[in-house]
Amino acid sequence: MLKRSQFKSEEAFIKVDFTSSLGHVGVPEDFGAQNSEEVVRVSTVVQNVRDDFHLRGRVSTVLNCACDRCLDEFPFQSRGEFEIWLATREDLVPMIDGPDDTRADEAVEKVTDDILAVDLTPHVYDAIMLSVPIKKLCREDCPGLWDRVDPEPEFEVPVPIESTDSPQEQLRKLKEALERGKKKKGRF
Q1: Which H or E run includes 57?
Q2: Which Pfam families did the record assign (predicted)?
Q3: What is the pLDDT confidence band of residue 52, given thresholds at 50, 70 and 90?
Q4: What's the per-residue H, E or C state across 114-162?
């Protein structure tokens, strides 16, 4: 939460730092939040723009991720950013027709005189989630599971038997087998 008293100032730029936890932000366990008490550091700079405010935030935390190649767990240093426009007048907040209307800029928050704090949790959550790469690797040159494969397996790899039938003969046999299967199931 960013309280109004923290950014309502005559100064052009105000720096506000705070901490939260992965559990409070709502990062799911399968995205690396095994420890819900892991600290999330949030650093914001609020710029006074006429009567409104422009907020830029940086988020950092550590997630426990599983490498997509070798499946080992590793600490991933998550670093994300977000920007929000804090509108002090109701007419500056985009009007939407309903919950499915995507025209509204989701980074505009209303901070009229009756609002005492701005909840930054959804923006912090988005910054963390967007910082996680699609392919999570413990290191760039991770060989994956291939370095763990036994070069001489204990089982024999079956060798395909070469057929002496022509391709046309193989297709004819396949067709006959399919027809026999249909007759047995009563479809023919």
Answers
A1: strand 52-66
A2: YceD
A3: confident
A4: CCCEECCHHHHHHHHHHHCCCCCCCCCCCCHHHHHCCCCCCCCCCCCCC
The string over 148-173, giving b where at least 16 C-beta atoms fall within 10 Å of a residue's C-beta and e elsewhere, is: eeeeeeeeeeeeeeeeeeeeeeeeee
pTM above 0.85, yes or no: no
* Pairing state between β 13-21 and 117-118: unpaired
- Tally of domains in the chain: 1
Domain encompassing residue 101: 2-145
Token code pair at residue 109: 């928050």
* Calpha distance 113→99 (Å, rounded): 25
Residue-wise pLDDT for 32-51, tens only, equals 666 778 889 999 888 887 77
- 24, two tokens: 């409070």
Q: What is the mean pLDDT of the chain?
A: 79
DSSP H/E element including 44: strand 39-49
